[in-house]
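Possible regression after last week's pipeline update?

I re-ran a chain I had predicted before the update to compare outputs. Posting the input and the new output here so someone can diff against the archived version. Not blocking, just want to make sure nothing changed silently.
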Amino acid sequence: MNDLIAARAFAGIGGGGMTTVASILMSDIVSLRTRGTWQGGLNIIFSLGSAVGGPLGGWLADTVGWRWAFIGQAPLTLMAFLTVTFGLHLPQAPITEVIMGQEVPSVKTKLLRVDFPGAFTLVLAVFSFLLSLDLSINSIGFPISSPITLSILWASVLLFVSFYHIEKSYSAEPFCPPDLVKRREILSPCVANFFCFASAMAVIFHVPLFYQAVLGSSAAVAGQRLLPMIFGGMLGSLGGGIYIQKTGKYYWLTFWAYLGLFLGVGVIYTCVLLTGTGHSELLIVISMNVGMVIFNIGVGIGVTSTLIALISNVTSAEQAVVTAVSYLFRSLGSVLGLSLAAGLVQTVLRRRLLEMLGDHDRALDIVWRVRRDLDSIGELEPNEVAIVRRCYQDGITDAMFFAMVLGFLCWVSSWGIREVKVKK
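New output (post-update):
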């Protein structure tokens, strides 16, 4: 499972880069007033891909194996590459530029402007944090109190501090300028994005796990049950964009959207908590879908409105930078929120199995088996199946509570957004 999280993290690096460039291009092409509607359209395309990908990934996992859900993305990525290569036409840049009296190839000049030290330090910081988390959860010989785990954790802290100093004092063109980010009108939407995506990834990853590990659904069925949530995101994103285009306002829209996010994840948490207490599975699934729709409508609106809030509070020269910063906070929130929530589930799962089974070796064997393949739950003894499902429920309940806290922090962070009416 942690290998999947790592894969999702690295996939997010490429995906974040592509979506950042697409957003910057969109800002250059359309007016700010219509930017929200166009962003909503882009999010609908993204959501349609998610709507197809969820059931398709589940079907692949049930038939030929989950690895094909990743292998199958290679030709799609190649198609996207060819589409951009031959379909995107930009003005030709000059072949050379004059710097200090000398002609320098423009590509080399642009590469010299890239903040490689800052980017490399940030990647190392995140990697070190995730490694320390993985060691403390999955390696028996490396608990959180072990010198090796603590050393890696402290190294991640030092790397985060180093990243701040590199961006503030050394990078000529930092991709995350501290002087820009610390402004309230920039910091509030970015922090809201961080908590929004941290909560969203914790929910999106663990709701299908709940269906499979607790309710016993197949991967395909779990993917199909995500469809209402995906359409909720489409509705929120496009509806929020149209509202901004018609009114030019976004503060109260964002406020209510993120309140909905918080309430939606609260409904999901309640459903997970109450499973197995006499309520029918159908009622649980319906209530979960209602919560997920409310939750993702809030996410869809907030993704659009916070980007408009950022762009409307900076000059045209700063738009590309704040867009990149916004996606940086989103990516960090996604990786850290998912990793911490997953670590919480695995910690609770192991601890509860040890408590309920009593047999240390047997419990560790079951933990290893069910984390490797959820279908192995059905191969256990009937009493062990009930125990494993109960332990998974306890872990996912804690993860959903964590996601609810993140949703509340997202809502609170949105209070500081500064509204500047968007002109036509």
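Follow-up from reviewer: compared with the archived run. The CA atoms of residues 62 and 399 lie 25 Å apart. Marking as no regression found.
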